[in-house]
Amino acid sequence: MSARSIAADVASGARSAASVLDEHLARVREREEEIHAFNLVTEEKARSQADAVDAAVAAGDPVGPLAGVPLALKDNMCTRGIPTTCSSKILEGWRPPYDATVVSRLADAGAVFVGKTNLDEFAMGSSTENSAFGPTRNPLDTGRVPGGSSGGSAAAVAANFAPLAIGSDTGGSIRQPAAFCGIVGMKPTYGAVSRYGLIAFGSSLDQFGPFATDVADAAALYDVIAGHDPLDSTSITDFTPNAVDHLSRGVQGLRVGVVRELSGGAGSVEGLSADVLARTNEAVEALAAAGAIVEEVSVPSATLGLSAYYIVAPAEASSNLARYDGVRYGLRVDAPTTGEMNTATRTAGFGAEVKRRIMLGTYALSAGYYDAFYGKALKVRTMMLRDFASVYENFDVLITPTAPTTAFPFGERSSDPMTMYVNDVCTIPSNLTGHPGISVPFGVGDDGLPVGVQVLAPALADGLTFQVAAVLEAAANAGGAT
Ligand code: GLN
Fold it and tell me: 0.90 exceeded by the pTM?
């Protein structure tokens, strides 16, 4: 059942929020042991929120747009008094003293928090295999990964533990798991959604965003979480989200560019599988059939995104993660001196991938290498911004696959960081440019697993991504995707 119909039923009194919650918790009890979507199921919190919504309805008080809708929160979102781990041992036992702005907005909107979802440690990964608490399984095929880093959030929605979830996306961590789990996932324009209370990975790249089973639910969730927040200094002022208004606008006359370098055309990145490319082509054809003007377009620097990202993101991470020193948060491993305590805590508390990123980032920022690595990556980032800006003079949106392949089996890529990093080749550019992007399911691959198609748009055209995704969803549902 969609979040929209749950909210409508609860607001009208046709169903109680408590019974909606019971239904979802029953499914959690049935499958969570197998899936491991959650680090923590917050049943008590959920019950009190559901009861408060039901009491408001009974009293005739106004309720929010997500009244009684179960929702899962990625475990890198600060929730006051509720353990928040980033799936890292270093934060075990830590309870934030405040709520993320997104969390308070959702609570005000009447959402019911069912739990904190599993992720790759500190959101570093593409498969949720890097969690310190064990992997999450893809509900569509439990032998496969759900994607990552927001794998727990995507799996929670795909398993119908909750119709909605929040993830974070630094290089693709909402869109790629959405593609792998056959749901909708969207990364907003940088600054459209408050980062206050998002535990930082790469601060210039990170954004919270919605997961849902369909485009309309994702748009409704987006409209609740987006908008200016004075607590986040990078939050965009004077921005009123209106994704839902875009849903029925269609694509007549819209100029759609298919990015050659990310869609198997001349000069394309390697490793994009044939079935994914076939579905992407069908999606493009569906847009043309719906009245869009479709053309192939070249964005040469798009292929450089991966290299620039794996300098910029680790550089920012090495600085952001310096705060886990054994003094202020979570784990402390005692030792005779403060320095030894810091080292012992960080050695025991961080997993292999996080350590790899801290070392990469520290190296890239070190004297003598700063210009050669970090400085150069920033130049590439600027070049990409310029390239995309000039392409958007002639195109309203761009299309690419979301990920090179469908969901892969456990262990297939975890031993080789490079093959894992390549997963994000199509999603990373919009993190570096700060632009919005959405993944919408469009048919299945040769293995029967879902394929996601990505719609990209210029900064602040978030509504447009939902607009185009709605047309793709309708085409896929009508059988336009094979
Ligand atoms: N997979 C990418 C990484 O490991 C992106 C992660 C993310 O978006 N949080 O850095």
Answer: yes
